[in-house]
Amino acid sequence: MERRNFLNVTLGALALAVIPASVKAEDYRTTKPAVWSAHTVDDAIQAMYGSTTLIEKGVSLRAPDVASNGGAIPVDFSTDLDIKSIALYQDANPEAAVCVYTTNKYSINNYSVKIKMGKSGTITIVAEGNDGKLYAAKKTLEVALGGCEG
């Protein structure tokens, strides 16, 4: 066996041994395509979880009251609840779903993202608990004139 092939095989086997077998993520764009084409937050939540009954507690959401740049709005959200997934939705753009994260018992559920909003609206975070309930937080914010110009 040539040296280069030996190294490739050895490093590949080592990488497989190091990667935990329990790490997985669901591709929601493939498994739940209706979430990504929904035009309202309620429709997107219904397509994702099969319900729109939200319990507004247990989830923390931080975003500016007024966003000077609709092209890069900082959004921080977190929860200490035992959850399966956590998602971010907004009602200012044509499609409501922004992102969904799959979690497990080892996840640190503290997220910081930047989103685009073309106009003022409401951001909604939904966490699917392992108890089957949907926990949420909402925040309405103003986007300064110009929308997504940045």
What descriptive keywords fit this protein?
single chain; 150 residues; alpha+beta; Immunoglobulin-like; six-stranded mixed β-sheet; three-stranded antiparallel β-sheet; 4 helices
Topology:
Elements: H1 3-18, H2 28-31, H3 33-37, H4 41-49, E1 54-55, E2 59-62, E3 66-67, E4 73-79, E5 83-90, E6 97-102, E7 110-115, E8 121-129, E9 134-143
Parallel strand pairs: 1-9, 3-9
Antiparallel strand pairs: 2-4, 4-7, 5-6, 5-8, 8-9
Structure description:
The protein has a single domain (24-143), classed as Sandwich (Immunoglobulin-like). Helices cover 23% and strands 36% of the residues. The protein contains four helices and nine strands; from the N terminus they run H-H-H-H-E-E-E-E-E-E-E-E-E. The protein has helices at 3-18, 28-31, 33-37, 41-49; strands spanning 54-55, 59-62, 66-67, 73-79, 83-90, 97-102, 110-115, 121-129, 134-143. A hairpin with a 6-residue loop joins strand 5 and strand 6. It is globular and about 45 Å long. The relative contact order is 0.21. The model is unreliable at 16-22 (pLDDT under 50).
CATH homologous superfamily caption: SoxY domain
Helix and strand sequence = HHHHEEEEEEEEE
Taken together, the total number of domains comes to: 1
Mean pLDDT score, rounded?
A: 85
Give the CATH level 1 class: Mainly Beta
What ranges have pLDDT less than 50 throughout 5 or more consecutive residues?
A: 16-22
Strand runs, count? 9
Here the CATH topology equals Immunoglobulin-like
Query: Main β-sheet: number of strands, strand sense, barrel status?
Result: 6 strands, mixed
How much of the residues is beta strand, in percent?
Answer: 35-45%
Helix content: 10-25%
